[in-house]
Amino acid sequence: MDMKSPGTGPARVAIPETDQYLNRELSLLEFNLRVLAQAEDVTLPLLERLRFLCIVSSNIDEFFEVRVASLLAQHKIDSAHGDLSGVFAATLEHVSNEARRLIARQYALLNDQILPQLAEKQIFLLRRSDRNPAQKAWVKRYFDEQVRPLLTPVGLDPAHPFPRVINKSLNFIVELAGKDAFGRGSGIAIMKAPRVLPRVIRLPDELSDQKGASYCLLSSVIQSHIADLFTGREVLSYSQFRVTRNSDLWVDEDEVKNLRQALQSGLHSRHYGFAVRLEVAHACPPHLSDFLLDQFNIDRSRLFAVDGPVNMGRLLEIVNSNARPELKFAPFMPGFPAKLGNRDIFATLRKQDVLLHHPFQSFQPVVDFIKEAARDPDVLAIKQTIYRAGMDSELVEALIRAAVSGKEVTVIVELMARFDEEANINWAERLDEAGAQVVYGVVGLKTHAKMALVLRRENGTLRSYAHLGTGNYNPTTARHYTDFGLMTADVALTSDVNEVFIHLTSLTRPKALENLWLAPFTLQKHLCQAIRKEASIARSGKPARIIAKMNSLTDETIIRALYDASEDGVRIDLIVRGACALRPGLAGLSSNIRVRSVVGRFLEHTRIFYFRNERDSQVYLSSADWMSRNLLRRVEVAFPVKSPALKKRVLREGLYPYLKDNVDAWELDSDGHYRRRKPRSKQTRNSAQDMLLNLLSEVATPTSKEVRDAEAELLAQGHVAPSPKA
After folding, report:
1. Per-residue pLDDT tens digits for 554-579
2. Residues 419 and 545 placed together within one structural domain of the fold
3. I need a labelling partner for 622 at 20 to 30 A (CA). Which of 284, 338, 452, 531 fits?
4. 227 exposed, middle or buried (CB, 10 Å; 0-12, 13-18, 19+)?
5. How far apart are CA 125 and CA 147, in angstroms?
6. SS3 of 263, please?
7. How far apart are alpha carbons 562 and 528 in whole angstroms?
8. How far is it between the farthest Cα atoms of the chain?
9. Which of the residues 357, 448, 467, 719 is marked catalytic?
């Protein structure tokens, strides 16, 4: 045992390296258990509970498409090279078992609570047996007129091989008795559900025996009349099924000449990646599911027989189509900073930086920043990164108008943004046609940094203005994700931003940056230096503090630095929404580290890094999580908040409420499981998101007393230095 000097912290304990980290895949499943807990929370509005249930389904789809697919691919590679250790096989089995338990709990919640309670609120999802005669007749007409003409059942034989099945599409397997029209006894048919038809169908209200909204599923419509498709044959059994496939796009970086063209050709093949999961109805006969497993080459451990629709995520249509305010979260109007109200945005930024906190504050100032730059005759150039802009973006439309008007417009479009590739390709083509300079970042490194730069001629010189953010340039997600954005005319900061743009377009090594920490070059190094500096301060006997908030923490270099700092006496609080590989609270390793996750109404997306630094606090915001992919295989930036007032805002809004939250917060134990924080008897309920809604939304602004009280609490915990007296 390595003993430390007196007064420098506890003695180090030797812990095997394999026991120092939590499994990433299991940690992701733990995150989805926390999302599922929101659906189980009876204090939440009922339709919002259904929304959380649908979010779990979407998350699990992506988990299999990406994480399980990656494990399978690695297992295949290791097996081909003679590695018979079975590490990945054991992980796959463990992950599949945990996913099975989660999914079973999800469907039990849907069937036992959500659907019955929706029925009590006059929202009905009708099975065949639930429909009255008028509704059955309407469904029959709908099937005959809208569905049957689009169906193409395929009876399998040597001339009709098993059809290609698209990723996550709805399909049916049908077992038939008797002979076909040609006297042959082909016994299996496969049928795809038309992708152009809605999966959730609202029945006419006048057909119902009771008030409210009645729905049925397309799968139920088809199954009700499946026998009509096989004249002269007896349907012995059938089941809906869905296959999840590997969805990672890959291009050969050494061979590809044009990334956009390569991806356009690759998007289609994504639908047919190797199969990783099979979902069937719970009543599917074993011989039919075995037949499908064989066709898709899927191990039985990844067969999921579900008691309900094979794609529960489609039920989101019920949430979106019901205007029942009592069953949803109360609406709110994002606040608009008074500094920007009806004022020249450039004049405002020449005086002071502006910090925006979404969704509690409006994203519109960011859109206005680009739109104003596009129409301002004194603006000569606009440079911007695009990662996820969405299919419809007035912000990108403004960039197109700026390019058409003759301004120098440079856009770094990340074509490899997972599941947004098609939208980004379309924007890249339109920007290119408008005359913008469009580049696709660096092949092999996703450009994930969120930056916009405006260059404006003022009094014969060029003045730069920038926006830097933790989230995407997407007004839709900005209403649902928590993010910070900084608008600034700071010369040193905007100069660094311009250098990064030059680096991305020219592919030359960036100059030494004064303010920005840039991945893959310096971000990990600067983070480790800041962590080690806090450790040095702690060893000298002074208070040392780190608070960081992010989506995921899996980078082992960062984790080891945090472990060392913990045992040197640094108090460390980590707010990690999703996957976390760090084990907190282990004596001799992480005894001074606490990890919590907050899962609430909005998706926590902010990345904040705070280092006390002997009261000369460093506060950085970033697009990057503490993952190896972000720090070493992406272009990311972390940018400082320089203004003392804005530093306090970041702490007051972005960190402190989350450390105090006892409503939506979960604490991570060293075994990898999370415990939900609940207010003790007579203790005030503290929800960070609710507090921020009250503080920032609509025209709400903190009173001077609220500011003083918040600062007093922060000061008592050693988070900030006292405000200078006037």
Report:
1. 999 999 999 999 999 999 999 999 99
2. no
3. 338
4. middle
5. 19
6. helix
7. 8
8. 96
9. 448
- 146's tokens: 């809208």
Residue 551 and residue 641 share a domain:
yes
Decide if 448 is catalytic: yes
At CA 274, angle to CA 273 and CA 280, rounded to 5?
A: 105
How many Cβ atoms from other residues are within 10 Å of residue 215's Cβ?
Answer: 19
Exposure class string for 180-204: b at 16+ Cβ within 10 A, else e:
beeeeebbbbbbbbbeebebbbebe
The region, left, alpha or beta by phi > 0 then psi within -120 to 50, assigned to residue 507 is left
Q: Which residue has the higher pLDDT, 393 or 604?
A: 604
DSSP 510: P
Residue ranges making up the domain that contains 142: 24-327
Question: Residue 21 burial by CB count (10 A; 0-12/13-18/19+): exposed, middle or buried?
Answer: middle
- The reply to whether 47 and 186 lie within a common domain is yes
Q: What is the dihedral of CA 441, 442, 445, 449, to 10 degrees?
A: -30
Establish if 15 belongs to a structural domain.
Answer: no
92-110: average pLDDT: 95
Nearest to 567 by CA among 15, 3, 5, 10: 10
The three-state secondary structure class of 92 is: helix
Q: Within this chain, do residues 537 and 438 fall inside the same structural domain, yes or no?
A: no
> Bigger pLDDT: 462 or 12?
462
The answer to whether residue 10 is domain-embedded is no
CA distance 491 to 353: 12
Last residue of a domain, one of 327, 361, 378: 327
Q: What is the DSSP letter of 603?
A: E
Boundary-marking domain end, from 455, 486, 514? 514
For every residue of 541-557, DSSP letters joined together read TS--EEEEEES-B--HH
pLDDT digit string (tens) for 281-336? 999 999 999 999 999 999 999 999 999 999 999 999 999 999 899 999 999 999 99
Of 133, 123, 59, 71, the closest CA to residue 96 belongs to 71
Q: Residue 456: which CATH number? A: 3.30.870.10
> Beta strand pairing status for 634-640 and 446-447?
parallel
The pair phi, psi for residue 209, each rounded to 5°, is -80, -10
pLDDT per residue over 111-170, tens digit each? 999 999 999 999 999 999 999 999 999 999 999 999 999 999 998 877 778 999 999 999
pTM: 0.90
pLDDT at 638: 98
Residue 672: inside a domain, yes or no?
yes
Per-residue pLDDT tens for 17-70?
878 999 999 999 999 999 999 999 999 999 999 999 999 999 999 999 999 998
CA geometry: angle 85, 626, 391, nearest 5 deg: 105
Query: Are 591 and 610 members of one domain?
Result: yes
DSSP 384-441: EEES---SS-HHHHHHHHHHHTT-EEEEEE-TTSTT-HHHHHHHHHHHHHHT-EEE--
Q: What pLDDT is stored for residue 272 in this prediction?
A: 78
| Per-residue confidence (pLDDT) for residue 590, from 0 to 100 | 97
Indicate if 310 and 269 belong to the same structural domain.
Answer: yes
- 316 in the same domain as 258: yes
539 and 489: one domain? no
